Amino acid sequence: MSSAAAASDWVHLTGEERVLWAGMPSLYPAIPTFAIAFVLSIFGVWLFRDGSLPVLPSWLALVLVPFGALVAAWAYLSRWSTRYVFTTKAIYEKRGVLSRTVTQIRFDRIQNTAFEQSIVERTLSYGDIEVYTAGTGGVNLSLRDVPDPKRANALVTTRLGETARAKRPDRSTDERPTV
């Protein structure tokens, strides 16, 4: 995915800020939903062709076909409309199919991060990243189903180190008291 294209309309970069990473949730967790949608559609066609609905008209079974398609479309759109962007100054998350919610956390506010993967997620190379900010008791941002979360979390950790070093005063110019 192109970083500039992914963040062009909802991430407003400052003069020195640049995109380090951009991504969207993995489609692997949606596979069961796609399978259920496919089975619903096939089952609707089978019921229509079989005609074994004695109390209902047989065309009613065909309602399962567009319903299955809608379930699959919603699963895809909800993942497609969720975007994650890491810049040199902040982490951004955008969610929403019909509406839009954008969350931004600056690196100078982040206290800690963690990533989590089940055995299935490790096999398929996706997982969750939790972002904790200073002054709060819990998770402030949960990035779900991030592709290669170990690499993405390492990028955040590296950037946090750089931010911490930039905030520290230069020790070479400190005046030392004489004894």
UniProtKB/TrEMBL annotation:
UniProt keyword list: Membrane, Transmembrane, Transmembrane helix
Pfam families: bPH_2 (PF03703)
The YdbS-like PH domain, residue ranges: 81-151
Transmembrane portions of the chain: 27-47, 59-77
Entries under PANTHER family matching the protein: BLL0215 PROTEIN
The name this protein goes by in its record: PH domain-containing protein
